[in-house]
Each structure stands twice: as structure tokens, then as C-alpha cells.
Automatic annotation (TrEMBL):
InterPro entries referenced in this protein's UniProt entry, alphabetically: HATPase_C_sf
Lineage top rank: taxon: Bacteria
Protein name per Swiss-Prot or TrEMBL: Uncharacterized protein
Length: 191
């Protein structure tokens, strides 16, 4: 009979793993088909976070700035409009799936959310919040700022973030990349 369960079927062999562990085990499912040993994985992480931001619907005049601060640290700032009713328990935008994947491969991440009337900062060690989110002084600018220190114990020892000109598979005029390792801003434009 099609669809019938075997007589010895049980849930015993099913293992439920935490989200971060699943991502670390199979990064190619989240970061552009780059497996863990692939030296392009660090750049693919940045690409996924930027692409996720660019896919947020109903964002007029969207701008994304990426600053590569060191071989393992970057900051991405956008002007996405974040709505209080569309945030998860950690204060992260529900429509930004890549943030959860980013946390899984990071040693430390700081995510700052600015809405029209609130502004707060959440720090993570991996996928775990370090402390409750901290309210900040309100700002007039909405958006998100993500600073990420990639987990050096996870990535191969030779992995570093790529140069600005080699970053971002999907070229987009709304994205600016600056590599502080060489101090040259790079505006990406559509091919």
C-alpha cells in the first residue's frame, strides 16, 4: 500500500536539532551552495544577508551599505522600514530569514533595529542573546545595522572576507561596499 508506515516505524531515529546546528552542518543550503570548506563561504554569508535585505518588499529608495572592517568582521546598514508588529521575540524582523543563518556562523553579532519611534540593540554570541535587548536613543532614520564577527572556529583558518570588488554576486546599484582594509568605496551597479 502506498504511503503505509512500516510496522517498525517510530520517532526514535528522528533527531530534532537546533536551528543554528542545522545551518552549521549544511551551510550550502543557506549561503549560495558554499560548503563549509569552501573559501568563498565568508563572502557568501555577506551576499545572503544583503540579498535578503534587497528582497524586503515595499521598500522605496532602499540603500544598503556594507563595510568590511577586517578579514572576519563586517557591518551592513540599511534603511528598511521595520514595523514593531513584525518582529520576533528577539526583536529581529520576521521577514529577514538570513539574520538567523548569519547568527549561526558568527562568534558575535550586534543587531540594531530602528523604527519610527523606537531604537534598540541586541547582542548575540552565536544564536544566543548575550543579554536582553537594550533601548537606545530614538533616531529619525529607520533601518537595521548588523555588525558581525564571523566564528573563526567554524570557518577554515584560511578563510577571509573577499575584497569589496569580489563581494556580492547580485550586483545592485542600491548597494555600496567599502573595504576598510584598502579604504576604497565600491558602488555596485547592475551588469
Amino acid at each position: 500500500m502506498v504511503g503505509a508506515q512500516p510496522a517498525d516505524y517510530s520517532t526514535v531515529p528522528i533527531v530534532v536539532r537546533p536551528f543554528g546546528e542545522v545551518i552549521r552542518a549544511r551551510p550550502e543550503m543557506y549561503f549560495g551552495r558554499c560548503h563549509r570548506a569552501d573559501p568563498r563561504l565568508a563572502g557568501a554569508v555577506v551576499d545572503a544577508v544583503v540579498a535578503d535585505t534587497l528582497s524586503v518588499p515595499d521598500q522605496e529608495a532602499l540603500e544598503v551599505d556594507v563595510v568590511i572592517e577586517s578579514d572576519h568582521r563586517f557591518t551592513m546598514t540599511d534603511n528598511c522600514v521595520n514595523e514593531m508588529g513584525k518582529l520576533d521575540a528577539y526583536g529581529l524582523p520576521l521577514n529577514r530569514w538570513a539574520l538567523g543563518a548569519l547568527l549561526a556562523v558568527s562568534a558575535r553579532t550586534w543587531i540594531e533595529i530602528r523604527t519610527t519611534d523606537r531604537h534598540w540593540l541586541q547582542e548575540f554570541a552565536g544564536t544566543t542573546p548575550v543579554e536582553p535587548s537594550r533601548e537606545q536613543e530614538p533616531t529619525v532614520r529607520s533601518g537595521t545595522r548588523i555588525t558581525c564577527e564571523l566564528d573563526r572556529d567554524y570557518f577554515p583558518s584560511t578563510t577571509v572576507l573577499p575584497a569589496a570588488e569580489d563581494l556580492l554576486d547580485a550586483r545592485d546599484e542600491r548597494v555600496t561596499v567599502m573595504d576598510l582594509r584598502d579604504k576604497r568605496p565600491t558602488r555596485r551597479s547592475s551588469p
